[in-house]
């Protein structure tokens, strides 16, 4: 029997490794930014073209590399940060396994220029599919420039797996923001298709947060600080009233490395208990500094998951720190007796000096309310007031309607009776609509029903491009963070089809001229931002196409909510529209929009 086990060629092994480390353009961006940070750069510039599919370029002013190091960095498992196995438990740098550059070189066309400060010339290396095509000296400033062109050019299946440009760009923005938040001491810039998206000068963490997410966040932040012998925690949490329906703006950093940890996320949510609803998620950017010996960062190829030696202790400290900050900065509800005016003049009772005064009530036993009164007050005698009926007939004539008024009242009553439908519908707890039917009753969830109606209406508009717009009295500008701006650009055509009249208005801003006629809101900015939040929430489910997600988001944003009082006419109109839908029995959340209870079922409750 011949041998069948063979060693894989290096090029194939690198491509397999690339499948674990480089999953999409944002993965390459992450590795290049981490290398620049490890090189002690103080300025890092990221240049993207075609959402990273055509070009990813990172330019830094770090330490640079010699010619030998430049060639070695593309070899698998070549690293300057580990010399023995024990070093794995002392790691405070970002990249350390030596897989990233070799993986990138296996699936892209790479050009690297690098120069250390100790040399007069730099080194230029060109690699394509793990093969070195050129190595020569070049002229450049101190630091490193790496260009990745045509990612996955030699793996068509992987390239076809990539999402649309707006989706891939949002992943790149997310990765860029994580690195920028973790290192406010570094000057970051990002350009996409020759347009600058981020310009983040050196500053403190709060300045970096507002530079990325917008100036309104300056008033939403609550600082968190905690120092123990085990861990140190610092960062910011958002005030509860600014919580969102999506998890997007939540960041954990352990030793300045971004991680995803559902257990620690639960600790934060637990600290916010009774301050947030179950469907709301607070903003937080928290940094945990811990001895590397107490964690293991080498448990996932992308290094976004770690293991703590004692995660329950970390959970308790984190939860306690957030609760303390919420109380310290008066975010948690409390009663301040010092500011209550009713208690200001109270003094303690002293039984030795203070007498107990029993309250008395003065009563005149001779008072008779039917006695005759003088103009200046009650008379002192007992003469009774004479009874008189004068004026009562005139008073009765005032309140008695004449014939013309009686005709108008009768006509008005007939109008009201004509307006009210014969259906005896009524609202229960301002949440359900109850309507008697021939063999029982119908109970309708008013929010679920209205969402179904609006969803089918908006979905039809998106397919037929027949949305109507209601022009705003005054155009309103809306400023967004870069990620929301790109998302809105991606949805712009579809938004216009359902009736939005919006246009780009400078950097990361839109101006709203009109909104769909079906949307009832006095605040156009709040409406658009709420729509984007709802869209991101629906997008995370990854179940529907873009138009259906947008229609669902519009319906959820504009539907009447539980707790809204409805008139008889509104309830009857909603019932008519619901049963005109293609799927009236189910809401867009997959649950029933109404239930039918028969007479027999009602009778069964009474035995």
Throw out a few tags for this protein.
607 residues; alpha+beta; Heat Shock Protein 90; Ribosomal Protein S5, domain 2; Ribosomal Protein S8, Chain: A, domain 1; 3 domains; eight-stranded mixed beta sheet; five-stranded mixed beta sheet; 34% helix
Strand percentage: 15-25%
Radius of gyration: 36 Å
Distance between the termini: 80 Å
The tally of beta strands, per DSSP, is 24
Strand order in the sheet with the most strands: 5-4-3-6-2-1-7-8
Number of contiguous helices: 17
* Structural class label: alpha+beta
- Runs in which pLDDT lies below 50 for 5 or more consecutive residues are 334-346, 373-386, 404-421
Précis, in short:
With 607 residues, the protein is an alpha+beta fold.
Explain this structure.
A hairpin with a 3-residue loop joins strand 18 (426-428) and strand 19. Helix 2 (25-38) packs parallel to helix 6 and helix 12 (446-464) packs across helix 16. The protein contains 17 helices and 24 strands. It has an 8-stranded mixed beta sheet. It has a 5-stranded mixed beta sheet with strand order 9-10-13-11-12. The chain is 34% helix and 22% strand. By secondary structure, the chain is α+β, with helices and mostly antiparallel strands. The N and C termini lie far apart (80 Å). The protein folds into 3 domains: 10-202, Heat Shock Protein 90; 207-328, 2-Layer Sandwich (Ribosomal Protein S5, domain 2); 435-596, MutL, C-terminal domain, regulatory subdomain (Ribosomal Protein S8, Chain: A, domain 1).
């Amino acid at each position: 029997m011949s041998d069948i086990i063979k060693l894989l060629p290096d090029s194939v092994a690198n491509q397999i490794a690339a499948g674990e480390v480089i999953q999409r353009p944002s993965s390459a961006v992450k590795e290049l930014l981490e290398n620049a940070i490890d090189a002690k750069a103080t300025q890092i510039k990221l240049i993207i073209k075609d959402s990273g599919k055509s070009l990813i370029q990172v330019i830094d002013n770090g330490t640079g590399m010699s010619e030998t190091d430049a060639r070695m960095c593309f070899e698998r498992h070549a690293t300057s940060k580990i010399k023995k196995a024990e070093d794995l438990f002392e790691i405070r740098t970002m990249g350390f396994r030596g897989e990233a550059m070799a993986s990138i070189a296996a699936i892209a066309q790479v050009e690297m220029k690098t120069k250390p400060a100790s040399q007069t010339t730099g080194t230029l290396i060109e690699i394509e599919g793990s093969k070195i095509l050129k190595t020569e000296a070049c002229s450049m400033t101190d630091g490193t420039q790496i260009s990745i062109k045509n990612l996955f050019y030699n793996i068509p299946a992987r390239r076809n797996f990539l999402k649309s440009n707006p989706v891939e760009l949002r992943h790149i923005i997310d990765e860029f923001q994580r690195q920028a938040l973790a290192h406010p001491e570094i000057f970051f810039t990002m350009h996409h298709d020759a347009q600058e998206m981020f310009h983040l000068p050196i500053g403190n963490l709060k300045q970096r947060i507002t530079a990325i997410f917008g100036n309104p966040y300056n008033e939403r932040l609550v600082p968190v600080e905690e120092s123990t012998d085990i861990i140190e925690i610092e960062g910011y949490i958002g005030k509860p009233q600014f919580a969102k329906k999506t998890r997007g703006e939540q960041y954990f950093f352990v030793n300045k490395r971004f991680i995803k940890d559902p257990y620690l996320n639960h600790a934060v949510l637990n600290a916010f208990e009774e301050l947030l609803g179950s469907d709301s998620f607070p903003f937080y950017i928290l940094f945990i500094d811990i001895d590397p010996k107490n964690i293991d960062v080498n448990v996932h190829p992308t290094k976004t998951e770690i293991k703590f030696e004692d995660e329950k202790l970390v959970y308790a400290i984190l939860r306690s720190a957030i609760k303390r900050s919420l109380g310290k900065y008066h975010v948690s509800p409390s009663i301040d007796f010092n500011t209550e005016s009713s208690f200001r003049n109270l003094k303690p009772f002293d039984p030795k000096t203070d007498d107990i005064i029993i309250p008395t009530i003065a009563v005149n036993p001779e008072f008779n309310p039917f006695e005759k009164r003088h103009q200046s007050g009650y008379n002192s005698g007992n003469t009774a007031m004479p009874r008189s009926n004068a004026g009562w007939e005139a008073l009765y004539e005032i309140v008695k309607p004449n014939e013309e008024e009686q005709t108008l009242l009768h006509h008005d009553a007939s109008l009201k009776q004509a307006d009210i439908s014969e259906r005896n519908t009524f609202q229960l707890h301002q949440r359900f609509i109850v309507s008697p039917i021939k063999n029982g009753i119908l109970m309708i969830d008013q929010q679920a029903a209205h969402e179904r109606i609006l969803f089918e209406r908006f979905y039809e508009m998106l397919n037929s491009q027949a949305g109507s717009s209601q022009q705003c009295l005054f155009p309103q500008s809306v400023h967004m963070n870069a990620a929301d701006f790109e998302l809105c650009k991606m949805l712009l055509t579809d938004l216009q089809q359902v009736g939005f009249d919006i246009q780009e208005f400078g950097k990361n801003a839109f101006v709203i001229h009109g909104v769909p006629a079906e949307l009832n809101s006095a605040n156009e900015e709040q409406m658009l931002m709420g729509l984007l939040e709802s869209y991101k929430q629906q997008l995370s489910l990854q179940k529907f196409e873009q138009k259906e997600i947008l229609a669902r988001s519009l319906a959820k944003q504009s539907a009447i909510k539980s707790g809204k009082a409805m008139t008889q006419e509104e309830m009857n109109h909603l019932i008519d529209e619901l049963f005109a839908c293609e799927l009236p029995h189910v809401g867009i959340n997959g649950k029933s929009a109404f239930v039918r209870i028969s007479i027999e079922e009602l009778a069964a409750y009474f035995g």
